[in-house]
Amino acid sequence: MATDRTWPHRSETSHFSTIPFPIQTPSPKPSNSTRNRQFQTPSPMTSSSSHRSNNRHHGALTSSSSRRTDASHYRDFAALPNDVLTKIAANFSLPNLQTASLVCKAWRDGLRPLREAMLFLRWGKRFKHGRGGVKVSLDKALDSFLKGAARGSTLAMVDAGLVYWEMGKKEEGVALYRRAAELGDPAGQCNLGISYLQAEPPNVKEAVKWLYQASVAGYVRGQYQLALCLHRGIRTDQNLSEAAKWYLRAAGGGYVRAMYNVSLCYSLGKGFMQNHRQSRKWMKLAADHGHNKAQFEHGLTLFSEGQMMKAVVYLELAGRGGETGAVHVKNVILQQLSPSSRERALTLADNWSALPSSR
Amino acid sequence: MTSSKTIVLRSSDGATFEVDEAVALHSLMIKHRIETGGADSTTIDVPEVTGNTLSKVIEYCKKHVEAPNSDDLKSFDTDFVKVDQAVLCHLAKASYYMNIKGLLDLSSKTIADMFKGKTVEQIRETFHIKNDFTPEEEEELRKENSWNLFV
Question: Which of A5, A329, A4, A358 is nearest to A187 (CA)?
Answer without folding.
Answer: A358
